[in-house]
Amino acid sequence: MYLYIETLKQRLDAINQLRTDRATAAMGAAFRHIYSLLPVLLHYHHPDMPGYLSHNTPHGISFFTPDETQQSLLATLFPESTYTLTPPPENAPILGLYSMGSTSSIGQSSDSDLDIWVCHQSWLDSAERQALQNKCHQLQLWCKKQGVEISFFLIDENRFRMNESGALGKEDCGSTQHILLLDEFYRSAVRLAGKRILWNLVPSEHEAHYDEYVMELYAKGALVPNEWIDLGGLGTLSAEEYFGASLWQLYKSIDSPYKAVLKTVLLEAYSWEYPNTRLLATEIKQCLHDGEIIHFGLDPYCMMLERVTAYLEAINDTARLDLVRRCFYLKVSEKLTSESQGELTPWRREILAQLVTRWGWQSDLLAQLDGRAHWKIEQVRVAHNELLDAMMQSYRNLIRFARRNNLSVSASPQDIGVLTRKLYAAFEALPGKVALLNPQISPDLSEDHLTFIYVAEGRANRRGWYLYNQAPEMNAIISHQPLEYNRYLNKLVAWAWFNGLLTEKTHLHIKGTSLCDLSRLQELVHDIATHFPIRLPAPTPKALYSPCEIRHLALMVNVESDPTQALRDQVVLFDFRKMDVFSFGQQQQCLIGSVDLLYRNSWNEVRTLHFEGESAMIEALKTILGKMHQEALPPEAVEVFCYSPHLRALIRTRVLQLVSECIDLRLSSNRQETGRFKALKLASDTWGLFFERMGVSVQKLKNAVEFYGAISNNKLQGLSIQM
Fold first, then answer.
1. C-alpha Rg value of the chain to the nearest Å
2. Are 492 and 465 in contact (CB under 8 A)?
3. For residues 335 and 370, is the Cβ–Cβ distance under 8 A?
4. How many CB atoms lie within 10 A of CB 86?
5. Which are the contacts of 473, defined by CB distance < 8 A and separation ≥ 6?
6. Residue-level pLDDT at 110
7. Are the beta carbons of 274 and 405 closer than 8 angstroms?
């Protein structure tokens, strides 16, 4: 047994060294330095070193001593520091430091980030754990300044035995994954410092009674106490995990679509094998025990591809198999149509070339994939829909699997709620919602020319606006399908802006209407571009767990219908002291012909709505107030833009005053102060807005009796606003 364990240790060390070499070979100097220095920065704690906060922060890694290379790097990076590296306590709080995920695999690319597990002793109390977390956060910030994105995960040695989970976040899967997360760690871990992973020693056939086998090894003296880190076995995998894990991968697909497709189909393959699921980590371990360093050096990404391929071939799903292969190729980021940039990572190109030959790919497909950085909206939209369809098909298959086996969900209701809302915000199609294409597919969707063409009622095509990425030359327009259609201009402009087609260099053209000329279109584009950034930080879990609230609101007045144009060349008698843009002049004309809403909510959804006619203002107010629940925070910004050639400033000021006043009335209503009322005259009609705690209602008041009766009785007989 002793010789067998020593043989396994040698194989483990050889695989670990191979992975370490691969992890650093293709990366820049900053990555290599940080990858080498991380153990030193967590082993020692000194005011002159990055990550220092207080003297009592836990530090020190078991069995770690910096080598000459690491000491030389320290001296190079911090030449002005003069300190003695004091050895940490003998009973080091950190058991080991490991990178995991795509690092060291063929899936690692030059822009890959680092996921680092800091596995620590279970005796750390909450204050010590928080201090170590703070140190890791400071190191993360320092690494970012060096140009390396890194995420640290503090892992208690008993986390997986106690079924504990981290806090759901951008990189932390929270309670959605447990044993499946450990499966990914075991199959991809690279030991940077600290103890070897004990799980690798336990033969696959003993996985079901893992703990008993480990105790037997210790009892026989085959293992040296405290030499290994033991996070537990994989035999306790519950099928309930698949649903939460698939939700997590759908969530991750927003930022990493190609990787997420591979991992989601892998989950589907696992469920297909249920109840005799053979996890990838177990397969890799079996190869290690058999001495078969196959699958391109037990590369976890290649093995994931092989497992997914076998599954899709077994169910005869050739469409998704083709997509999975393209996802794998794009994730690897080695352009086979380009000359090799050096011989640092020839193994990556060799593997990819072998796979492409096996798949029978032609040069035109390779050229298309290698040109992804230059894809424009048509190609990106096809890719976006393909990726989303594949993810949703896997998700539906996993739901059917759960129902078939009468499974519940292992993830916490709060985590499921947050992920579900994030997915709805990203993917749900709703009227007025601006559909955002995945920005990770192609970096630049900007167009040189965008033409907005209006088709009036009664034509062959339906009435509304059509968008083309061509100059308005008839031959070019006729031979192309429109990029997008919408009945209203505001939605079309918003779609082009938030998807990156519109930039300051884009030449705009507008045809087919006198409703809106080029100057007005340019103003509209400028107002949206100036006040609405395309990208914002992702919403926090707290925001996603709460009802969505309007964060940034803009009202575009008189874009497509402008009553003030009728005032041109006319003599209009009015009293400046009584000037009312909602009931103007002797004819009591409402100067608000159309209102377009554009707003972004706390879930980062972008919505647009259009209202037209004399009641446009009251309809817009109803909608705005109806989207504000009683405990909502007021919008961070409320903007009003007016596009009328006459009385523009006055209209803008009055509309902004009205909207601000109504928002204040809505959000300040409470149980002690009920029955607030506001009257608004639009043209010759008077409308009443009744502000109550549970909502706002609107009622048209036809005469004075009805007007005063509504106030005195505080009746909410009008159209109730949906919350």
1. 31
2. yes
3. yes
4. 8
5. none
6. 82
7. yes
- Residue 646 amino acid letter: H
**CB 254, CB 426: distance < 8 Å:** yes
Mean pLDDT of 603-628: 95
The Cα–Cα gap between 479 and 61 comes to 66
Cis peptide before 203 (omega within 30 of 0): no
Whose structure tokens read 């009683």? 630
C-alpha span between 376 and 358 (Å, rounded): 29
Position 631 scores a pLDDT of 84
* Residues 434/438/442/447 CA torsion (nearest 10 deg): 0
| pLDDT at 715 > cutoff 50 | no
Domain ranges of the chain: 1-234, 236-278+299-435, 446-535, 537-670
Joined together, the tokens standing for residue 205 give: 């056939």
Q: Return all residues near 41 (Cβ < 8 A) that are at least 6 apart.
A: 49, 50, 51, 139
Label residue 579 by pLDDT band (50, 70, 90). confident
Residue type, 546: S
Helix (H, G, I), strand (E, B) or coil at 310: helix
Lowest-pLDDT choice from 123-132, 195-204, 456-465:
456-465
Find how far residue 418's CA is from the centre of its chain: 12
Choose among 249, 256, 255, 252: nearest CA to 271.
249
The token duo for 121 is 């002793």
Q: What is the pLDDT of residue 707?
A: 57
The number of helix segments (H) and strand segments (E) in the chain equals 23, 18
Q: Where are the alpha helices (DSSP H) in 360-376?
A: 363-370
- Residue 464, φ and ψ in degrees, nearest 5: 145, -165
Please give the single-letter amino acid code of residue 555: L
Q: Do 130 and 21 meet the contact criterion of CB atoms below 8 Å apart?
A: no
Between 103 and 586, residue with greater pLDDT: 103
Nearest CA to 469 out of 431, 516, 502 is that of: 502
pLDDT for 408-455, tens place per residue?
777 678 878 887 888 888 888 888 999 999 888 999 999 999 999 999
pLDDT value of position 720: 35
Residue-wise burial string across 496-534, b where 16 or more C-beta atoms lie within 10 A, e elsewhere: bbbbbbbeeebebbbeeeebbeeebbebbbebbeeebee
The sign one gets for the Cα dihedral 328, 334, 336, 337 is: positive
Task: Read off the pLDDT of each residue in 344-352 and give the average, rounded to a whole number.
Answer: 86
Predicted confidence band of residue 36 (pLDDT cuts 50, 70, 90) = very high
DSSP state of 476: H
Evaluate whether 456 touches 410 at the Cβ level (below 8 Å). no
Phi, psi dihedral angles at 92 (to 5 degrees)? -65, 135
User: Average of pLDDT values for 521-548?
Assistant: 93
Question: How far apart (Å, rounded) are the C-alpha atoms in residues 650 and 656?
Answer: 10
Q: Which of 578, 450, 436 is nearest to 504 (CA)?
A: 450
Q: Are 494 and 598 in contact (CB under 8 A)?
A: yes
Residue-level length of the chain: 723
Residue 89: cis peptide before it, omega within 30 degrees of 0: no
CB neighbour list of residue 81: distance below 8 Å, 6 or more residues apart: 48, 49
DSSP assignment letter at 566: G
Query: Each residue of 300-346: pLDDT tens digit?
Result: 999 999 999 999 999 999 999 999 999 999 999 999 998 776 556 78
CA pseudo-torsion sign 131, 132, 134, 138: positive
